[in-house]
Write a structure and sequence with these properties.
Layout lengths: L2 E2 L2 E2 H8 L3 E5 H16 L5 E6 L6 H10 L2 E4 L2 H9 L7 E4 L5 H8 L4 E4 L2 H7 L7 E7 L21 E2 H13 L4 E6 L8 H22 L3 E5 L17 H18 L6 E4 L3 H4 L3 E12 L3 E5 L8 H5 L5 E3 L7 E6 L8 E8 L7 E5 L19 E6 L2 E6 L4 H5 L4
Parallel strand pairs: 3-19, 4-5, 4-12, 5-6, 6-7, 7-8, 8-9, 8-10, 10-11, 11-12, 14-16
Antiparallel strand pairs: 1-2, 3-13, 13-14, 13-18, 15-18, 16-17, 19-20
Helix pairs in contact: 2-3, 2-9, 7-8, 8-9
Bound molecules: pyridoxal-5'-phosphate.
The site of pyridoxal-5'-phosphate has 18 residues, from helix 10.
Length: 406
């Protein structure tokens, strides 16, 4: 591998330094248009809200805003970032988890849509204001994600209100004078199977029928969350998004008719599908070691890209300009933790100090999870648009590191 969006990776490394996150604007645009077209052609009232938690660089958010997306936020600060990127309040959704009183005080000044995590969240929010539309995140009692760490529904999940208790929560909102409602469910991330989405929607629609029959209302929107996966490994097939959209919208429209829901908005909150494969991490080999195993160390670590250490996530890696599988190595970072391994027993060409090591599919849940652990500095971020690179976040400095200490 030598180029990203026609730009030589070595030149990027020389100009901006390493480690470096690089994003491809054309790829982001293609991903958005593919997903949006697939759904909108079957159900025009589909609305995408890009999941800000997956990548919150304001320049990236602005691309989605320009494409016509809304924003899905998981904290009041994400709401403010989305506003900074140009999103209007009516295009912003906030879905919290154990929302604090302060979170709600903060949200009071913004007329964004809120998906409440629980009936007790409703009790807290009405201490400050009554949302115009009330929506709860439903936990259907089951969940499915690419692995355990990214499964967000089921009896072990900390998210949402158990579906059996949801009708009571909506009734409570109705008693407080609320007359507009939505409903939300997101049971896991990185799913590659179209039927998973169809089954999820079917389940959510059935739960919705039970709730909305009891309160005598129709949903203004049904939010099925994100979770659209990408293939991180060579032997995985990409999610068939055309099929997914066809199955989901078919069940959705059929159930809307059957249950007398009219034509609510169908909200999607994708993160990974839109940005993961449009991001690369450029690192530089800093050392090679023949210990009990072969190790190659680079100038990044779990402080730069946490996913492998956090969930054992796999990312494909390449050495700039080198091909072959001459060695089997563990590819490591510089952090003082033995879990700071990007890939175990990978077949790579022979690496030498100064080689560039490229880690792919890091556009989602990459930079946003970076930290200063070991007092390492966060990397820079660059966006390539039509082969022109632009710095969209500078590299941290030691002064940044100590800037909060009085
Ligand atoms: C409520 C909610 N919406 C959207 C997302 C984005 O998920 P993904 O990146 O899998 O599309 C998540 C991720 O966990 C989530 O919890």
């Amino acid at each position: 591998m030598t180029h990203i969006n026609h730009k030589d990776i070595r030149e990027l490394g020389d100009e901006f330094g390493t480690p470096l996150y690089v994003y491809d604007k054309q790829k982001i645009t293609e991903n958005y248009n593919r997903l949006n077209n697939a759904f909108v052609k079957h159900y025009p009232k589909t609305k995408i809200h890009f999941s800000v938690k997956s990548n919150s660089n304001v320049h990236i958010l602005n691309i989605f805003q320009q494409l016509g997306s809304g924003a899905d936020c998981s904290s009041p600060n994400e709401v403010m970032l989305a506003q900074k990127a140009g999103f209007a309040d009516q295009d912003i959704i906030y879905t919290g988890n154990y929302e604090s009183r302060d979170d709600f005080v903060n949200l009071k000044n913004h007329s964004v849509q809120i998906n409440l995590d629980d009936s007790t969240s409703f009790d807290r929010v009405i201490e400050h204001f009554i949302p115009k539309i009330v929506s709860f995140r439903i936990n259907p009692g089951i969940g499915k994600g690419g692995h355990e760490g990214i499964t967000t529904g089921g009896t072990d999940a900390k998210f949402g209100i158990p579906y059996e208790y949801a009708a009571e929560a909506y009734k409570k909102a109705k008693q407080q004078g609320v007359s507009k409602f939505g409903i939300h469910m997101m049971t896991g991330s990185n799913n590659l199977e179209p039927y998973h989405f169809a089954q999820t929607v079917e389940k959510l629609m059935l739960i919705s029928k039970n709730i909305f029959d009891q309160i005598g209302a129709k949903p203004d929107f049904v939010d099925i969350g994100g979770g659209f996966g990408i293939p991180y490994e060579d032997d995985e097939l990409p999610l068939d998004i055309e099929k997914t959209a066809e199955l989901v919208t078919e069940i959705f429209t059929e159930k809307c008719q059957k249950y007398g829901f009219g034509e609510p908005y169908l909200y999607l909150e994708p993160g990974r599908y839109l940005i993961a494969d449009a991001g690369w991490l450029i690192t530089q080999v800093t050392g090679t070691k023949h210990s009990y195993k072969n190790f190659v160390g680079v100038d990044a670590g779990m402080s730069t890209l946490l996913r492998p250490a956090l969930y054992g996530a796999f990312h494909r890696t390449y050495l700039y300009g080198k091909e072959g599988e001459d060695t089997v190595v563990n590819l490591c970072g510089q952090i003082c933790e033995n879990s700071d391994v990007f890939a175990k027993s990978v077949h790579l060409p022979v690496a030498e100090i100064g080689d560039l090591m490229i880690i792919r599919d890091v556009g989602a849940y990459g930079y946003v999870m970076s930290s200063n652990y070991n007092n390492r500095l966060r990397p820079a971020e660059v966006l390539i648009d039509n082969s022109k690179p632009k710095l969209i976040r500078r590299r941290e400095t030691f002064d940044d590191l100590i800037s909060l200490i009085p």
